[in-house]
Structures are given as structure tokens and as C-alpha cells.
């Protein structure tokens, strides 16, 4: 009896951990957590049988089965599955307490069976990402550079295909020197693991002649000892061994298969197997491939930030070296610096890439929100997503969550009509809510489109007048009205509901988006719906800036804020008492940085920079423009945090520091 | 920095198509309607790619390529040769070992852009 009590205690502990993992999973899919869930279920199942808890055993077995599919990538986790499992945890607890919840338990098992049924059809849809193995043998013509082919570029492209191992043959002249002298005398053997197809791999060698390259798919580890391979390269047993080891390491599917000789036997018997079995076999191999693929390591964002900081310093240090070298460079050093540059840039890109996560991790949250909001408001919504694989900086996704949710809430509350009303307007009962995102240039765009009623400008105007934001008799353009909609303290909800109109309005959304240097744009058509477009920078740490000079000090202005620059004499600028310039017929306030910093000597001529940030315009007067620079943004430390007119700092190529100007704050 | 491309082609319509296709991709494109005009563009300025027709008045593609290659700063310049010529050996002989690739006319513009991007890497 004691043992049984102990089991119950332990099982409850495990259930607690299980619950925790499930809630983590709800936040974002994570292979580690899936594994944990699987493990916990397994533990519960394992001992339940021993103590006669048959129902516990059955239920946990079914759940374990479900999560083993998730772990192996056969099934995607979804909200329903998580809800069901969380519910099952409660039932398991009750079962352990001896409560009669057998019927509920059976119900859950039925639901699991339904989920499994639907998965079979879903499985084929998601193209399993399988890592293929290739061997590339490159024998470039000695004078390949003379044909205008950048051989280094070819090698870089190969590296971009996946993970690879380079072997350089006939390296009588050091390869680095071959590259710098642009005479390639070596030849290359490359083992490549890539998700790309053979044709895609071959595309890299588009300009190379047929005699210059061979791409072989590694279908079996025997390739290296085959006669086919011998025709290209004669290898000693040790060399074959080394390659086999390398290939096994790079291509997990190869190591998943047993000893080489056995593989061949299997392959033969496979042909004779009946269709059904073959199908099962295929499923098994994809399982192996899936579970062995990639693998994840969770790293704390702090460590990532540290890495990025170091990489950023490296980027700056490189420009410093280049600066120190000046013009009297020896060609070898120039070459080395160039290489350093390409490496640091690659390192920087990879480091930034680590921080990028697909928008997909927001999907579950958004769907859950839409489900609950539409239920509360009695509306029917069809949610369509596209481009959820678009990647963004992790911190950015976190910052995006609240505004996106707010926009969606608004769309469902104000935009999409009730089903009956939609029918009256000849629209489908279900309102359409579309979420799509894509990359364009240095930006990521996210669009939220609904096919609801559109924004009611009359209502906005009435509300604006009521709130004292607009004047009664005046005509306003749609753009102005949209601006009002996004100004503080504006909410058009007829009554204050839990959904929207809680005092948090579009102004907060706009502010939150602006905080991550994004823009928001609204277009709307009455009766047809609206589109909210968010434009976001790819990362927050790299910034294109204009370098300006004020009394021999350099300052940076984000290029995205600069609308126009021109020169003007100081006498003309300061002719009037009011600090205003006339730009495109509009009087804009300007701030002379010299004056602002308390300097009362002025050069005869200055440069006026028209700043446009979120449709607010002003001008800044500096001495002159130095140039354009891509800088790594660094936040200011605590001492300077209260200085509003600078948003951050950056280190210039010559090692000196420059502050990033937050122009709009100059005027306040 | 956007890359600079010289396009030498005597036939106006195809040249315009090529130029507009490339300009749309954000490249800086310089046009020449024959080889002699094209060779003048290679005055030491930075050029990242030459796209030239084979049959042109004044100076044909093969001569143009030879002239350009003879200039030190363009000895490793990627070159794409456009041709409708069926008898490839003839061309091959003229320019072998000197150019990056031959592109047969007519071509699909998306395919062409892909080739250009590869050549510029």
C-alpha cells in the first residue's frame, strides 16, 4: 500500500511538470518541450500498469503516441491538441485520486483518434525537409578566372547550400595564393549535406564546363568504395574510411542506416516487399530523417546579445584597421583585409540570423485570440495566413505581439460584421481575416486584411469632434481622419467592451510599432474592408545613417528619417527671429545643432536636413554632410538615458564615437 | 552598391528589353549599340558585367571581348555572350576561354536574370 501511495505522489509530480511543459509549448513550439511531454507521459504510463491503474495507462499511452508523432515531425502541434492534453492531465489526476471519470477518459481517447485520423491527410502536404548527401568534384580550368567566373563565389555558393566538408587536392601552391593570383591549380572534393535537390545543387555550377564538375548523390555510404568513385579519385582504404565517417557525420540519414553491407541487402529485399509495407517503410525512414535532422539548442537571449555585441565590435575594428592602413597598403595586406571583411560580414550575418525566428510562433496565439474574440462577439471568422515563415528578430516579434493582437481585435470588433448582417450584404457568413507577411529589401511587411465594413469615417469624425480632437465645421481628408484615429484617447467602440475600446487605442499600436522603428499604414474601403500594413526593419541593431558634421563632431541621423537635404546660407536662415524654413511651401520649424549645443559661431553656409518621421516634419541645420554609413546601434547607458535628443550611439570607422540623433525630440 | 552592367546589342528592341529587365533588378545599366561604342565605355570605370551580342556592326562581339580582356582592369570581368548562332563551334573558337557563358537568344527574362545574378557573384 505504501508503494502505491508513493506512486500516486510521484505520478502527480510528473503531471505537474507535464502541465508546465504543455503551457510552455502553448507559448511557442519547442522540440525540447515536446520531448519532455513525451517523456513524462511515458513515465506515467510505465508505472501505471504495475499498480493496476488501467485507465491511466490507456490514456497516457494514447497521448504518448500522439506526442511521439509531434516529436518526429509527422504531426504539427496545434491548439486543439494542447487543450485536449491539458484537459487529459486533469482527468489523469482525477483517475489517480480514484474518482470515476472513466467516461471522460474514453472521450479524450476518442478525440485523440480523430486527431490521428486527420493527420494522415496532413502528412503528405508538408513537404518533409530531407537532408540529401552529395559529393561534388570540381576540377576547374586553371584559367577559370579569365572567363570572368569568380571561383571563390562558386565555393561560397556551395557553402550556402548546406553543411559541407572541403578537401583540396594537389595543393602545391597554397590555396589562398591561388585565389589571390587567380590561377587555380588545385582540384576539390566536397561532401555536402543539403536540403536542395540535385538540380538545384547543379545550378551553382551553371557557368562551369561539363568536364569541370561532377555532382554525385550519396544514396549509400558505399559510394566512396565504389568503382564509380574510383573513376574520379583513387582512394586508399583509410581515405575511404575518412570520407565515410565525414559523410555519416554530415548526413544523418546515412548513419541511421546500419552497417554498409546490411544496407545493400535491405535495399534488395525492399523491392520485393508489398505495397502496404513499403508505405510503412517510407514512413519509418522519414521519421528517422525528421528526428535526426537539425536539432535545436536553446540559448538565452542574453548570450545572443553578447555574441552580437562582440561581432559588432569586430565589424567596427575591421573598419578601424582599414582606416589605419590608409592608402599606402601592400597588396597582400589589402587582400587579407578584404578576406577579413568578408568573414566578419558573414559572421555578422550569421550572428544576426540566430536571432531571427519565423513569425509562425505567433500563429497559435493569434488563432486562439481570434477564436475567443469571435466567440465573445458572436462573429464567424475565417483566418488565413500566408508567409508565416518570414523571419524577424526575436525581440521584434515579442514587441509585435501586443499591437498585432490589438489590430486583430479591432478588425473583429469594428470591422467584420455579424453573420446575419453579412448575409444581408451578400457577403459570406464567415468574415475573412487575412494575415500575410513578406520580405522586401531591408524590411519585413505584415499585412492584416479583413473583408468587413471598412473604417467609418463619419463615425471617426463625429467621435473626433466629441473628443475635441477635430473642429466641427471643418473638412478633413481621409488621411487626416485616419491620423486622428491613431491619436491618443480615441476609441470609437459604441460601448466599452472587454474586446476593444478599453482606452487603449490605435495610438498605442502606432507608438509600439514606432518603438521598433516600424511604420503603420491603413487603407480602407467602406463596406469592403480594411488593410493594416506594418513595415518593420529586419533587425534593430543595424542602422543606415547619414553622418553629419557639427563643429568637428559627428552625429548620425537614421536615413529612414531623412526626407531631403539642401544647403543654405546662415544669414538667410537666421534672417527672421522665428526658426523656420520654407520647404515645399510649408513652414517647418528648424533646430540648428550649433545653437542647440550652445555654440554661437556659425559657418557662412549650413546644410538643412528635412526630417520626416511618422509624418511629422521638421528641419535640422548642421555644418555639412559627411556621408552614409551602416552602423551598429548601441543603446546609451544609464547616465545618458535622460538625454532625449539622442536615441543611441555608434562607433565610426575611425574608432571615434558618434551619437544617433533623435531629431523630433530636439524641438521639445 | 548596385552593380554596373554594359549591354552591347545593335538590335534596339532586344537591347531595350534587356536594359529594362536589368534596370528593374536595380542594376546600373550602360547601353551601346555596337562594339565600337561599347569599347569606349571601358575607360577604367568600374564595370561588373558585360553582356554583348555576337553579330554587331563596326565591331563584333568577339573583337569587343578581345579588346576588353586586353585591358588590365577587366581581365577577370564576367562576360555573357548573346547569340542566335546555331553553329556554336564557330563562336566557341572565337572566344573560348574568354567568356563566362553563352546565352542563346531568344531567352526567358526570369531565366536571364538568374544567369546575370550568377555571373555577378
How does this model look, in words?
With 668 residues, chain A is an alpha+beta fold. Chain A folds into five domains: 124 residues, HPT domain (Four Helix Bundle (Hemerythrin (Met), subunit A), Up-down Bundle); 133 residues, Histidine kinase CheA-like, P2 response regulator-binding domain (Alpha-Beta Plaits, 2-Layer Sandwich), CATH 3.30.70.1110; 57 residues, Helix Hairpins (Orthogonal Bundle); 179 residues, Heat Shock Protein 90, CATH 3.30.565; 126 residues, SH3 type barrels (Roll). Helix content of chain A is 48%, strand content 22%. A five-stranded mixed beta sheet of chain A has the order 6-8-9-11-10, covered by helices on one side. In chain A, strands 19-12-13-21-20 form a five-stranded mixed beta sheet, with no helix packed on it. In chain A, strands 14-17-18-16-15 form a five-stranded mixed beta sheet. In chain A, α16 packs parallel to α17. About 9% of the residues of chain A have low confidence. With 121 residues, chain B is α/β, with parallel strands linked by helices. In chain B, α4 links the parallel β4 and β5. Chain B is globular and about 30 Å long. Chain B has one domain: Response regulator (Rossmann fold). Chain B starts with a strand and ends with a helix. The longest helix of chain B has 13 residues. In chain B, strands 2-1-3-4-5 form a five-stranded parallel beta sheet, sandwiched between helices. Chains A and B meet through α6 of A and α5 of B.
Number of helices of chain B: 5
Overall shape of chain B: globular
CATH architecture of chain B: 3-Layer(aba) Sandwich
Q: Please give the share of residues in helix of chain B.
A: 40-55%
Number of domains in the coordinates of chain B? 1
- What is the CATH H-level superfamily of the largest domain in chain A? Histidine kinase-like ATPase, C-terminal domain
How would a textbook summarize the main sheet of chain B? 5 strands, parallel
- Residue share in β-strands of chain A: 15-25%
Tell me the name of the CATH homologous superfamily of chain B.
Answer: Response regulator
Helix-strand string of chain B: EHEHEHEHEH
Shape of chain A: flat
CATH topology of chain B, which one? Rossmann fold
Helix content of chain A: 40-55%
Total helical elements of chain A:
23
CATH architecture of the largest domain in chain A: 2-Layer Sandwich
Alpha-carbon distance between the two ends of chain B: 13 Å
> How many domains make up the 3D coordinates of chain A?
5
Oligomeric state of this protein: heterodimer
CATH third-level topology of the largest domain in chain A: Heat Shock Protein 90
